[in-house]
Design brief:
about 240 residues; alpha+beta; 4-stranded antiparallel beta sheet; 10 helices; 11 strands; about 45% helix; globular
Length: about 240
């Protein structure tokens, strides 16, 4: 039987874990064209051709999937510094999810031909994207394990930490600044496969203990260290 140390859960991954190195970001931004989006405007939808790599320059984007019945589930919220669309570029297959603006946003766009030429000429950038893909696989696997093994409170806290792109620097309480998470309770519920009422009930409890504050279509994170404690499974 595995030892207790082997069963100990690793710290939850956060959105900041999925950022490319600054030097790679600079190269990408130097060759990208910029595009302004209005709230709700599509970047691409499932089935669209893989014609470009995208990066969030300002604002937030919603990544979602649709069931056969038309039910939308929000997979993630992308904020400034995140690049996406690379999976379809590497596989040559159509887009498999939907991405649209969650409020006004600015994005960087690199056509597929330029992206492929770049990674062919720069093995270090190719390696950076390979590492990024592996990290995405790891966090997806962790979310699956989380959904199977943990109660809603742990899953919800883990998801909020993942959305908080500054949480890695603040989860130990080193910073007292608050942070607005640009996600609604409806989106949280859809991403976790539970009802909005269940999410609201748990958020209200955390509001009472000072972990966060509920706002319209946003969650204000007040105490990341306490939220990190809520994300730990109870033995």
């Amino acid at each position: 039987m595995p030892s207790d140390s082997l069963r100990t859960a690793s710290p939850p991954m956060r959105a900041s874990d999925l950022l490319l190195p600054p030097e790679v970001q600079q190269v990408l931004l130097s060759i990208a064209k910029h595009r302004t989006l209005e709230d709700g405007q599509w970047v691409f939808q499932s089935g669209d051709p893989a014609d470009a790599l995208f990066g969030v320059v300002q604002g937030s984007l919603r990544v979602s999937v649709l069931s056969a019945q038309g039910t939308e589930a929000v997979v993630s919220i992308l904020e400034a510094g995140h690049w996406f669309g690379d999976i379809s570029l590497f596989t040559g297959l159509p887009r498999f999810n939907h991405v649209k603006a969650a409020g006004p946003a600015d994005i960087a766009v690199i056509p597929a031909t330029e992206f492929h030429a770049l990674i062919a000429a720069r093995p270090d950038i190719h390696l950076a994207f390979t590492k990024l893909l592996c990290l995405r696989l790891r966090i997806t696997t962790a979310w699956i394990d989380d959904a199977i093994l943990n109660p809603l409170a742990v899953r919800l806290a883990t998801r909020l930490l993942a959305i908080d792109h500054r949480g890695e620097q603040r989860a130990d309480g080193a910073s007292s600044g608050t942070h607005l998470l640009n996600i609604s309770q409806d989106d949280l519920a859809a991403s976790l496969g539970v009802s909005r009422q269940s999410v609201n009930r748990q958020l209200k409890l955390w509001e009472q203990d000072g972990t966060l504050r509920i706002q319209y279509r946003k969650i204000e994170l007040l105490n990341p260290r306490q939220l990190a404690a809520h994300a730990q499974p109870r033995g």
